[in-house]
Design goal:
The chain is mainly alpha-helical and about 325 residues long. It is built from 13 helices and no strands. Helix content is about 75%, strand content about 0%. Helix 5 runs antiparallel to helix 6. It is a multi-pass membrane protein.
Length: about 325
């Protein structure tokens, strides 16, 4: 176990450096092809050249390599890595720290992600297990139909329908009534309420995790169905083990390996994909920060936030790889 974890940690270093270099190349090529974001910030009302040069120097945009299309700007990349290593991800065009702006909004997005993951894990795995144990029965058919519907709807369509039908048609009367408990109305809120930082994110969290919930349910069902036909399951039944022990102790652990893989990858997608959900429900999270930065053409914020989310995504995948060894002791590196 220790050697496995050590090797994964060693392999993590070139992976994260390579990923950050690809992000660096994309941002560098964008500047080389599209043009200087400082000049684009002012449009036709450009300030004096001295002001532009001062801003370019402040945001490390005065390197000569940025004028040469295709130049990888390795020196600039090394400087960025040194800067990132100190926790400094730059400042926006108004002088605010990108990390400070990210940390202000990240707790909201983190709560939204946790709620979405909770829906995925609890409902998705439970539905998948019930469908796998009752293959081709009513429960199985109901799970398959429901998951297909959830997968078929894009997030912005499903979110708009949930906002209109659940948040306004159901949640609004509950919040205005005298008989309904306050927490129930807040669970079906149409926006973020700082007085209820968790309850007001329940409906957006379900919308954000709906697609992944359906995918996890189908993945769990398929994996469990295949493992129930394995030789070790027939041997366990021949020894007289109960179905609960066979499924709960043996079969489910093997069936959860692909599910854990999907969840690990999905954490990064939830953090990045919250942009649409946060826009629909007007949630002041990281997604809204990126959206506003795109509108304002604030390149340092876009590059900094995307870099931070990439690091979080890679770390979550590293944790998933380490969890493999806990789920299945046979998974080791030679």
């Amino acid at each position: 176990m220790g050697r496995y974890v050590a090797r994964r940690l060693i392999q993590f270093i070139p992976v994260i450096l390579g990923t950050l270099f690809l992000l660096h190349m994309l941002s560098t090529l964008t500047i080389q092809i599209v043009g200087d974001p400082v000049r684009a910030l002012f449009g036709p009302n450009a300030p004096p050249q001295a002001v532009i040069e001062e801003l370019q120097a402040r945001y490390n945009l005065n390197d000569p390599c940025l004028d040469q299309t295709g130049n990888p700007c390795v020196g600039l990349f090394v400087d960025r890595i040194r800067q990132y290593a100190t926790g400094d991800f730059g400042v926006n065009f108004r002088g605010r720290s990108v990390m400070e702006m990210f940390l202000e909004r990240f707790p909201v997005t983190a709560r939204l992600t946790v709620i979405a993951l909770a829906f995925e894990i609890v409902i998705g795995i439970s539905a998948g297990v019930m469908a796998g144990l009752k293959k081709d029965k009513l429960v199985d058919n109901l799970v398959r139909v429901t998951t297909v519907v959830l997968i078929a709807f894009p997030v912005f369509v499903f979110g708009s329908l949930a906002l209109l039908l659940v948040g306004l048609k159901v949640g609004l009367p509950l919040r205005n009534s005298d008989w309904a408990p306050e927490w129930l109305g807040q669970m079906l809120n149409v926006g973020y309420d700082p007085d209820y930082p968790w309850l007001s994110l329940v409906l957006p969290g379900f919308v954000l995790g709906a697609f992944s919930l359906a995918a996890i349910a189908r993945l769990t069902r398929t994996s469990l169905t295949e493992n129930l036909r394995s030789d070790y399951v027939r041997t366990a039944r021949a020894k007289g083990l109960t179905t609960t022990r066979i499924v709960g102790v043996h079969t489910l652990r093997n069936s959860l390996i692909p599910v854990i893989t999907y969840i690990g990858i999905d954490i990064g997608f939830l953090l990045g994909g919250s942009l649409v959900t946060e826009g629909i429900f007007n949630i002041p999270g990281v997604g809204q920060l990126v959206f506003l930065a795109i509108q304002a053409n604030d390149a340092p914020v876009i590059i900094g936030v995307v870099t931070i989310l990439t690091v979080v995504f890679l770390i979550s995948n590293l944790v998933v790889d380490i969890l493999y060894a806990a789920l299945d002791p046979r998974i080791r590196y030679d």
